[in-house]
């Protein structure tokens, strides 16, 4: 049982929350030592942490799940990069085991975010150049190895628009990303069943009042989109505009193997990246993922003037709902006991994944 100020689906209450693997009661009453209790974070875009990259396969997923759990992430998607087919299969085989069996002290791996290889080579960003045209057979073969929950694609690539309805029927959320497409391309993709946008503003055709691109599509039509709130990938002013335009804009880390590590050289798939001054870049200087954690994302949102309740929703409830995970991302009777306890400076002092306490050091 925990006592404090608890953020429930009905708003804040002072009282106690009891749980085993799931939440068994939430009761108003004494609030104890003034701690703040919020739902665990749900991160739908995670490439790595603690010097380990998801594309390494093997135990990489377990290391990443444990590392992010220490920062309050209780559920996540292991995210791949564009690579040769055998490398993607190797990464998926490693993730399959972590998805089936949550590692001790680790976040729950809900599935895979397949970020590539179905991208536009004109908007690769930090992605390797091994792009291919997507096909139903190829996606189904990947999906058979490990469940794909989110798939990023450039819908303007020939054949991709027709693929979207099939992916939707498979239960995959198709996201527009790494795209040079036009406004019309984006609208057509959403009509075909595309559900979201990958790291909004980054890796896509931008806003223009005469030649609108994918950012305009998101601002005009999207219910959901992900954004990286590290204050480096997106200017706070642009982020505020997106927050007003997209009702359920949610934060992701896009975290790399450099997360939680000292400055130096790290892997991002087959790319070499360099951590320095709180960011990760290619040798060219281009941003290449982040070293963001979800607790820092929370503090960044609040630092922009966002109410703590809204910041929590944009890091827990909205991404959970996007995936259809109705028992995560909220502190409600019967939901999984995915819980973060914060001190007054909004740093985690306790984390529970499905009721299991996570060592924070």
From TrEMBL:
InterPro entries: Amidohydro-rel (IPR006680), GlcNAc_6-P_deAcase (IPR003764), Metal-dep_hydrolase_composite (IPR011059), Metal_Hydrolase (IPR032466)
Residue intervals of the Amidohydrolase-related domain: 36-356
Keyword annotations from UniProtKB, A to Z: Carbohydrate metabolism, Hydrolase, Metal-binding
Catalytic center residues: 254
Molecular function terms, GO-annotated: metal ion binding; N-acetylglucosamine-6-phosphate deacetylase activity
Family (UniProt): Belongs to the metallo-dependent hydrolases superfamily. NagA family.
Protein name (record): Amidohydrolase family protein
Species of origin: Massilia eburnea
